[in-house]
Amino acid sequence: MNHNQELGAAGEELAANYLLDAGYAVLERNWRCNLGELDIVAETNGQIIGVEVKTRSSLGFGHPAEAVNPAKLRRLSLLVRRWCVTHRRNPHTVRVDVLAILMPPGREPRIEHLIGVES
């Protein structure tokens, strides 16, 4: 596993724990279908949430959330709906959240939770 893969895996682990601590149920991680992948599928208050996790070690290449463009958001929205169909779930709403994580070496990670960026 290279450095970027390790950073991404650490970010996804941190994100899952953050969601659990915030009262979300983490239903699945790294769910894949022919349309792509959802990093995390979570649930809270009857909502199914597709969570995109973006992790960086610095802002040298921009804020982590900047990597999630409108086309990616549309695809994530389709993915969370596909997950619901595949798992025979009929939530009253679905949404897409982004967890932008900055993990500078030797410092505490910072998590920014962008809620409902696409619903």
From TrEMBL:
- Its domain of life reads Bacteria
Q: Which family does it belong to?
A: Belongs to the UPF0102 family.
Recite the lineage of the species: Bacteria, Bacillati, Actinomycetota, Actinomycetes, Micrococcales
A family per Pfam: UPF0102
- Family annotation (HAMAP family): UPF0102 (MF_00048)
Q: Could you tell me which CDD domains the record lists for this protein?
A: PoNe_Nuclease
> Any idea what this protein is called?
UPF0102 protein ADIAG_02290
The record ties this protein, via InterPro entries, to: Restrct_endonuc-II-like, tRNA_endonuc-like_dom_sf, UPF0102_YraN-like
Q: Which GO terms describe its molecular function?
A: nucleic acid binding
Q: What is the organism of origin for this protein?
A: Paeniglutamicibacter gangotriensis Lz1y
